Amino acid sequence: MALLEAVDITKRFSGITALDAVSMQVDDGESVGLIGPNGAGKTTFFNCLLGLLRPDGGAVNFAGKNITRTPVYRRSQAGIGRTFQRMELFAGMTVRDHLLVAERSRLGTGRFWKDVLNLSAPSAEEQSRAAATLGLLQLDDVADAPIESLSLGRGRLVEVGRALMTEPRLLLLDEPSSGLDASETAALADTLRAVQAERGTAVLLVEHDVEFVRRFSARLYVLDFGTLIASGSTHEVLDSSEVRRAYLGETV
Amino acid sequence: MTEFLTYVIQGIPYGCVFALVAIGLVLTYKTSGVFNLAFGAQAFVAAAVYYDVHVRHGWSRWPALAFVVLLLSPALGLLLDVAIFRHLRTASPIAKLVASLGLLVAVPQIVTIWLGQASTFGVVGIWWDDNALYRFGGKYVLDGKQMAIVVSTVVAVVLLGLLFRFAPIGLRMRAVVESPRMTELAGVNSDRVSAFSWMLSSLFAGLAGVLLAPLYASLAPQNFTALLIAAIAAAAFARLTSIPMALLGGLLLGVIQALLSGYLPPASVIAQSLKPTLPFAALFLLLLFWPGLRSAVQNRDPLSGIDPPPSPPVAASRGKFLTNATRIFGTVVVVGALAWLLTGATSYWVGIATTAVVLSVVFLSITVITGMAGQVSLCQATFAGVGAFSTAQIVKVFGLSVLPTMLIGALVAAFVGALLAVPMLRLGGIFLSLGTLAFAVMFDTLLAPLGWVSGGARPVRVPRPIGFVDDRSFLILCVIVLVIVSVFVIFIRRGTTGHFLHALRGSETAARSIGINPTRVRILAFAVSAGIAGLGGGLLAVQKNIATKEDYSYFLSLFFVVLVVTLMPSTVEGAINAGVGFALVPEVLKLVGVSASWQFVLFGLGAITYARHPEGVLEFQKRKSLAAIEKRLPERWRGPGANPPAPASALAVPEPAGSVD
Predict the structure, then answer these.
(1) What residues 14-73 of chain A have any CB closer than 8 A to a CB of chain B?
(2) Which residue from B388, B389, B387, B367 is spatially nearest to B377, judged by alpha carbons?
(3) What are the distances in angstroms from CA B321 to CA A245, B334, B441, B632, B636?
(4) In the predicted model, what is the mean pLDDT of chain A?
């Protein structure tokens, strides 16, 4: 059974249909891309999956459960992690603390009485798990630096790391290459592949950069004007004439 | 039917004043994103100056009125825009609210320093004959003051409508709200547009002030603050966006108030307390149940994403040498002061020191809610009052000993805080602040006067705990409580709760995406904060041996927030500084020989800097000077922070206090 299954998701904004019965699925450990021109409804769809928007019709199933009406934080607990197109980091926190906060949230062992008795310091195990993720993302050298001192590319990696600490079964990446230059993008794609190889997390990638998608995703969905216009293996989709017309603006 | 219409007509003048203020609030909110709490203060300025020039300087009515409403009030609005709010355009809604809160505290005091104590002002109307009676249909009567209000409101509203309908500035005003910089790209001078809207709304404030003054017996800033809060209800009714709805909301409020006071038996408790409470109850209920308010757009500049992030805190990590040096210095000061207080000082200074310590405890509650949770609560003095009254009543009724009862009082306050947080947190942002303000005023007018709360006319007395009766030993007790609460706060900040709150403050969306339940953590923060305030309030009552409602009024809540936010809202040290400042600044002013009003001016204007320095001005200056000292130290004593500044960040980190989506 599919890990994530979106069935006929429909979303309207005051009369405009942003999404028209869009369905897709992602299997365990798979790497799937979602592309489309600006205004195609990618972000709206993403937000429906995450619970930031409530779809007007359709259902989102995750690991066999209907999560269409589940609050955002519960979806994380169920195993959905994400990154953000516009960086959402915790100002004034170190990189390591970003990971430790996520780890504590996953464990759910934070208790108020422990705080009061000063017993909430991260355990050795939490520390070593954070260190492992820092190593995986090659962030060791900035582990204790304030987040403000990081470059955009490494900030993205912190977001990936923070999401990974919650041990997601599915990682949603929202335009991770935006704002990065070509070499940073290539490095990010390599790192993400390494992450997937090690953790076996399924990844759904929303992306503009076709090169990035080609490097990273095995399968693709294409959205245009709120409807799914193509799906299939990455090279098939990218070579299909309809997609080239809609997305790449080419006349065939 | 006749009776009904009489009451309706009686209510209309009040409704008109509410409407004028509400329209002004909506105007500034729509065009600058500022929820202008200083509006009441602007109205007060107009009323005071009108009295001054008309009565004291003998100007005749019309020149005086024209000067105040058409010249002075717009000028004041222009000043506020140019000097303050223009620079806050991209600041978070909370930062803007705090700036206007500072003005609300400071401006009336500036007026009293300038023109003399408010109690010496009389009131004078603008109508030819204030006491003339006008009849409608032979039965319904309005006097001159009321006629003045109705006629002026109609004229003002019609002119405003024409302006929006026919002048291009109306469209430009709306564009500036969306994004001042985008509007500028389209060739509109957004500074000029925003200045115009500030002048316009200030004119409404001036008009409301002059019209309202004759309805009260004397000219007091509190009346205008109460008017402002009442008008917030009308503005909330208009979802802060629709001017016609603001007008309607104001009128409805006035009429309902008149109907209530007409039909309820005048002597009944309900009539006595319900009528003055109505606007606040209405605000409270509107905030909770009025659809659309929750989703009311909290202005966010679409271009703010490209803003450089706020400069990183100066020398956040400083060298070991300097850390130890400041610690030793601090310890010496504290121990020295305590030694002097416990041996040499007069009881007068012991009293002042005790106040400082007790208030520090109360201010720690603001450290938790504002510094850690990033929410601006405007009812902390009310929570302190809940703690104080509970302590006093339980000791009196059940005869429990004082020390454990103070803890019970704190728990009661924490419970009230959690209960209030549940609906308030759904609102978030400035609506949370307004809701807490409504709660504070409601508590003041509805609950605090009751016998079972404050003892009514005869306030409840509380003894000091056995063993701590004399002033010096009581000071020791207070210091012990402060140390315990400080450690408590530090542990919470270091713990899971503190980190979750930090994450929520940084980015609520991201915090939720890693599984943090924002409501749960914030309710906890509210309860902890209210509990600490309750404990501090109990301590204050015990210090004074009495729990009086004046010690916990909503105005103090406002002043507390302004004070703590000005100094350093995010650290325990900051709360203690604020406590010392609260007790000591009046003494210093006395020493220098200037009016005690200056403390409100000082801290009120200080709060404006919150937008630029969310860590507090004092904290900012401290970091800056410590960084400067560190630079001069020999190499081996320096810490990592003094080395070349961290590279400018490429991340667009949102304002710490602004995460209120």
Answers:
(1) 50, 52, 71-73
(2) B367
(3) 66, 20, 49, 13, 9
(4) 87
Mutate to test the interface with B, among A53, A72, A74 (most CBs of B within 10 A): A72
| Residue A188 to residue A39: CA distance in whole angstroms | 25
State how far the Cα of A195 lies from the Cα of A138, in Å rounded to an integer. Answer: 11
Alpha-carbon B31 to chain mean position = 21
Q: In the prediction, which pLDDT does B120 show?
A: 62
CB contact under 8 A, B510 and A110: no
| CA angle A54–A57–A63, rounded 5-degree value | 75
B305: nearest CA in chain A?
Answer: A86
B491 contacts in chain A (CB < 8 Å):
115-118, 120
**Quick one: pLDDT band at residue A248, thresholds 50, 70, 90?**
low
* Overall average pLDDT of the A35-62 stretch: 87
Which pLDDT does position B137 carry in this prediction? Answer: 66
Q: Which amino acid belongs to residue A91?
A: A
| Residue of chain B nearest A112, judged by CA positions | B497
Handedness of CA B351, B357, B362, B363 (dihedral sign): positive
Closest-CA residue of chain A to B502: A90
Q: Work out the minimum CA distance from A73 to partner chain B, whole angstroms.
A: 4
pLDDT tens per residue, range A17-33: 888 899 999 999 889 99
- What is the arithmetic mean of pLDDT over B454-477? 87
Is-contact B322 B637, C-beta < 8 A?
Answer: yes
Are residues B652 and A115, on separate chains, in Cβ contact within 8 Å? Answer: no
Q: Which residues pair with A174 in a beta bridge?
A: A206
Q: Give per-residue pLDDT as tens, B360-370.
A: 999 999 999 98
Query: Is residue B649 very low, low, confident or very high in pLDDT (cuts 50, 70, 90)?
Result: very low
Given B495, B513, B646, which is nearest A114 (Cβ)?
B495
For A34, the 3-state DSSP assignment is strand
- What is the spatial distance between Cα B389 and Cα B409, in angstroms, rounded to a whole number? 8
Q: Does residue A145 register a pLDDT over 80?
A: yes
Which residues of chain B lie closer than 8 angstroms to A50, CB-CB?
Answer: 513
The pairing of strands A65-66 and A80-82 is unpaired
- Exposure letters B97-119 (e unless 16+ CB within 10 A, then b): bbbbbbbbbbbbbbbbeebeebe
In this predicted model, what pLDDT tens digit does every residue of B142-184 receive, in sequence order? 777 788 888 888 888 888 888 877 778 777 776 666 666 677 7
Residue in A77, A101, A173 to test binding to B, most B beta-carbons within 10 Å: A101
Share of chain B above pLDDT 70, in %: 85
| Bridge partner residues of A172 (DSSP) | A82, A204
Asked whether B20 and B201 are in contact (CB, 8 A), the reply is no
The interface pTM score, or ipTM, of the predicted complex is: 0.92
Distance from CA of B249 to the nearest CA of A (A): 27
